[in-house]
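Design request, tokens follow.
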């Protein structure tokens, strides 16, 4: 059974998906005081949050059993990703579910800043004032809209602004120029160029060290008089004191703001201005987007808990690789090869080198990640997974190398792993996938053979002379150990043979010692996969 705790309000549709899943129990704690909340999460396997829950180091210290954090939204700035990763907690988000809601919310703020609609509405309905002169607006048509950050939301805002006849300029140093030019926007190299030329500025970056207070006193000073500013991304991207000054001086014509540096924010100095339009972090609040986000995150959390997949994991380093079906089969094989090698060597591992060959070369980083998970599984105390493996590898001083495969081979795709251990000893194995679900080791240290890495395996090396394998079979039989499979590789150059003996039962150390008494035995090891 997995316990999933929902910490913030999400759509019932997502909760239903969790409730209908076998092996999942759901607890709703969205109304709980945020200070009390972490204290009640000691046995939670997964939590689902929105931006109202701050998941920092202290919060995580209470979550002894946590494996998955599902962020029902895009921004993960409320989660200490480093701390979560160190603890092996997978963090998943739903990056696309609320893009359109946030885009339309931005456009609403922009239009309000142009036409003062909420003020006119308020005066007419509640003060019964019919004043057509007071609420003169300006048009979006013909204006220059400056967009800082052209990701998912920035792009959609650009398209909508252009459909109103506005010119769009973009500052985003992290995107290719064509992303902006393709839709008819102009990209600028310097933030100042945008700041000095835009009539309306809207920001759509994440909150990072670089973007925090990106717009402050100096930047506002350089803006056009009567500039309109919008922030529907994250509080703190615009310095709130500088905004106050800009409004007070009349430099800023209007401000539309959905997010605040400290939230919730029921009272703020900026509220004193009639030309400031505020909403309480409602960017993502449409029924459509909340259903999309809640359903999506519920499914991803279930998949991650059950090890079926890690869609939209923000702290697993595999995000840029497209993984084909064959690539997936190799990932599983890489993990088993890693586990095999660390059990076989039973030593301090200095370096893991992988040599991928064929179409799997493009999945080299993921293959390395899965290999390291396999290697670590048997040698560290804590729970190892795809999130904390890179940290644990670094912590233990194990080097990792991805190297080009430069030998000839008959295999279309082949993964070779070389482990350096103890004092410059090496062991090398090659693995291949023949057809779906037929992943095999195909050689070890120059001995060719073909064996599936599963179950109990004895790896036995001996001088290649008659009678030895018969004696091994006799010893195992005498101890009631049934042989399930047997594969042999020979190296004529060394006069040695290497056998992989699969057994139905686990073989104890005394039996291995007995086998090593056979004249001609060189080495023996057992692994369990
Ligand atoms: P995204 O990741 O798709 O896009 C972010 C863009 O910002 C990227 O293109 C990136 O290159 C750019 N960027 C990063 N650092 C930059 C810098 N220093 N200067 C210029 N550009 C920079 O994200 P998104 O889904 O478009 O979301 C954008 C923002 O909106 C995020 O902060 C997100 O948390 C927020 N958001 C708010 C709400 C809400 O309810 N108000 C809803 C959804 C998203
Ligand atoms: C997000 O990052 O997705 C938004 O802030 C919306 C939310 O938390 O609901």
């Amino acid at each position: 059974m997995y316990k999933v705790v929902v910490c913030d309000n999400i759509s019932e549709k997502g909760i239903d998906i969790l409730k209908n899943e076998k092996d999942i129990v759901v607890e709703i704690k969205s109304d709980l005081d945020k200070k009390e909340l972490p204290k009640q999460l000691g046995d939670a396997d997964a939590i689902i949050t929105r931006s109202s829950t701050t998941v920092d180091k202290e919060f995580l210290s209470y979550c002894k059993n946590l494996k998955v954090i599902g962020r029902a939204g895009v921004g993960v700035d409320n989660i200490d990703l480093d701390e979560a990763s160190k603890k092996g907690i997978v963090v998943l988000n739903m990056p696309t579910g609320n893009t359109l809601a946030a885009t339309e919310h931005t456009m609403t703020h922009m239009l309000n800043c142009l036409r003062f609609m909420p003020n006119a509405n308020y005066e007419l309905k509640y003060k019964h004032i019919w004043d057509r002169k007071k609420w003169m607006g300006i048009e979006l048509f013909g204006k220059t809209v400056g967009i800082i950050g052209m990701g998912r939301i920035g792009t959609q805002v650009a398209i909508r602004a252009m459909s109103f006849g506005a010119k769009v300029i973009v500052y985003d140093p992290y995107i290719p120029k064509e992303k902006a030019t393709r839709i008819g926007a102009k990209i600028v190299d310097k933030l100042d160029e945008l700041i000095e030329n835009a009539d309306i500025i809207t920001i759509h970056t994440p909150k990072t060290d670089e973007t925090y207070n990106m717009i402050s006193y100096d930047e506002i000073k350089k803006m056009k008089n009567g500039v309109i500013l919008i922030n529907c991304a994250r509080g703190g991207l615009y310095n709130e004191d500088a905004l106050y000054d800009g409004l007070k001086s009349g430099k800023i014509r209007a401000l539309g703001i959905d997010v605040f540096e400290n939230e919730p924010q029921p009272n703020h100095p900026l509220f004193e201005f009639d030309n400031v339009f505020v909403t309480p972090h409602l960017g993502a609040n449409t029924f459509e987007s909340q259903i999309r986000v809640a359903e999506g995150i519920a499914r991803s959390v279930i998949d991650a808990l059950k090890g079926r997949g890690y869609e939209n994991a923000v702290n697993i380093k595999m995000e840029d690789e497209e993984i084909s079906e064959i690539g997936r089969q190799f990932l599983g094989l890489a993990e088993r090869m890693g586990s095999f090698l660390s059990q076989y060597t039973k030593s301090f591992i200095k370096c893991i080198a992988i040599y991928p060959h064929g179409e799997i070369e493009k999945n080299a980083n993921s293959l390395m990640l899965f290999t390291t998970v396999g290697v670590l599984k048997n040698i560290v105390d804590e729970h190892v997974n795809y999130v904390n493996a890179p940290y644990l590898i670094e912590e233990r001083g194990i080097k990792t190398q991805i190297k080009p495969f430069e030998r000839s081979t008959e295999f279309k795709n082949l993964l070779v792993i070389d482990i350096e251990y103890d004092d410059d000893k090496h062991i090398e194995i090659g693995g291949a996938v023949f057809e779906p679900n037929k992943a095999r080791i195909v050689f070890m240290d120059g001995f060719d053979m073909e064996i599936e890495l599963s179950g109990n395996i004895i790896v036995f090396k001996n001088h290649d002379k008659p009678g030895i394998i018969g004696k091994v079979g006799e010893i195992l039989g005498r101890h009631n150990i049934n042989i399930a499979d047997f594969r042999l590789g020979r190296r004529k150059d060394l006069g040695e043979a290497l056998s992989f003996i699969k057994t139905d039962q686990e073989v104890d150390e005394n039996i291995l010692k007995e086998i090593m008494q056979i004249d001609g035995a060189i080495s023996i090891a057992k692994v369990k996969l």
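Comment from the thread starter after seeing the answer: thanks! The chain has a mean pLDDT of 94.
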